[in-house]
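Deliverable D2.4 — example input (structure tokens):
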């Protein structure tokens, strides 16, 4: 047992859970998900296979995958109260993460008494894309597009955002993205979900809490600003001066650096490959080349700015490139991260349920202990 009075700010280095879901090695630049090195599975598995694998510790066979897809299809459509709430939210012009958090809180409606964890997990996973797409369309004055039972999870997401069936290349690109971000050790939102489940609370409550943690700009918010930075540069000839100006003004270059990875983030490589394949097949190669040129300049000026710190490209930089190429608006980059990460959050909910141990750390009291009561009239 650790010494109770040792305070570790940010819990850095504290091991607070055991997991079979993912291993993050920040020094080697390696990410293992469910026993697979990320680069061996992210661009091959469908998102449904990836989730099944994390929830069941093995890949599904053909029948199991078919049944899983069928169950999700039945739970994809939103209940009337959720739709009503989203319509009300649209009139208030809420941030998309606030809309997602509010609507997800209603997804426990109609939960059966038996087997609640399984039902809620499938309901949450299935309905996340529907909520984001509906919130986005309603906030832009468009009618909601109902899910198509013939389409898979990723294809449905793109379909419900745009109202037309997406190309295979776009679906593959999105699946690789969702698989890449599905789990990443005991990050803040995953920890939040596990703490909530550890109190024997329900999965909907855990996921609402996780969304709240993900919303913070220190966790899930960099790809939008990374893309804005590239747009601001516009032409590679301006990259050096724009980036140097930002650094001189004390700004950080979005999409570079990482708390855990001290070498290149392995997710950046997987997404770089996916972006390359997608842009070559179906994208604007001029924009793709600009982003890669900006990256080269950014790495050079960052090395001069912080020599030896090895500030490298992180997952968010290539997220911006890939999601923009897939046609997703920046306003739903963070909720799209949640559409992928919810598969991992729920896997952790199952794992924490099985661990059946209340998470209850200690605090170190640093206040006074000898104060005297003073009546209201004397204060
Ligand atoms: C992700 C991030 C918060 C990690 O931070 P960290 O590992 O704790 O690194 P630190 O904040 O201790 O930074 C070390 C030094 O490098 C600098 N630095 C780190 N990332 C930088 C960046 N992207 N641009 C410019 N300088 C950066 C810091 O200012 C710090 O300088 P200092 O020692 O003079 O204070 C940080 O790299 C960052 O803000 N990146 C930009 C935002 C981003 O892309 N976030 C998505 C992460 S997946």
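Example output (designed residues):
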């Amino acid at each position: 047992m650790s010494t109770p009075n040792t305070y570790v700010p940010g819990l850095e280095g504290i091991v607070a859970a055991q997991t079979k879901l993912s291993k993050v090695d920040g020094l080697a630049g390696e990410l293992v998900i469910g026993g697979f090195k990320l680069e061996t599975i992210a661009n091959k598995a469908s998102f449904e296979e990836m989730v099944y694998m994390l929830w069941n510790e093995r890949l599904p066979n053909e029948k199991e995958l078919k049944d899983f897809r069928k169950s999700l299809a039945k739970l994809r459509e939103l209940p009337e109260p959720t739709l009503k709430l989203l319509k009300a939210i649209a009139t208030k012009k809420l941030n998309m993460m606030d809309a997602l958090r509010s609507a997800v809180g209603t997804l426990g409606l109609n939960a059966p008494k038996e087997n609640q964890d399984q039902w809620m997990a499938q309901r949450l996973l299935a309905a996340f894309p529907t909520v984001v797409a509906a919130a986005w369309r309603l906030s832009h004055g468009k009618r909601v597009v109902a899910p198509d039972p013939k389409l898979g999870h990723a294809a449905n997401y793109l379909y419900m955002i745009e109202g037309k069936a997406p190309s295979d290349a776009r679906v593959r690109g999105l699946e690789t993205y969702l698989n890449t971000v599905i789990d990443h050790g005991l990050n803040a939102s995953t920890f939040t979900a596990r703490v909530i489940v550890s109190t024997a609370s329900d999965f909907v409550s855990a996921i609402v809490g996780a969304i709240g943690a993900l919303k913070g700009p220190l966790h899930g918010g960099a790809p939008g600003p990374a893309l804005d930075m590239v747009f601001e540069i516009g032409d590679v000839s301006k990259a050096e001066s724009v980036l140097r100006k930002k650094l001189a003004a004390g700004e950080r270059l979005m999409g570079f650096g990482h708390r855990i990875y001290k070498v290149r983030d392995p997710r950046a490589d997987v997404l770089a490959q996916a972006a390359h394949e997608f842009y070559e097949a179906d994208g604007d190669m001029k924009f793709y080349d600009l982003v890669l040129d900006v990256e080269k300049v950014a790495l050079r000026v960052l090395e001069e700015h912080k020599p030896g710190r090895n500030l490298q490209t992180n997952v968010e930089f290539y997220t911006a490139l890939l999601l923009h190429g897939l046609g997703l608006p920046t306003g739903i980059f963070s909720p799209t991260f949640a559409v992928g990460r919810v598969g991992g959050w729920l896997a952790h909910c199952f794992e924490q349920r099985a661990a059946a141990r209340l998470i209850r750390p200690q605090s170190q009291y640093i206040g006074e202990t000898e104060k005297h009561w003073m009546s209201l009239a004397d204060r």
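The first strand starts at residue 22 and ends at 25.
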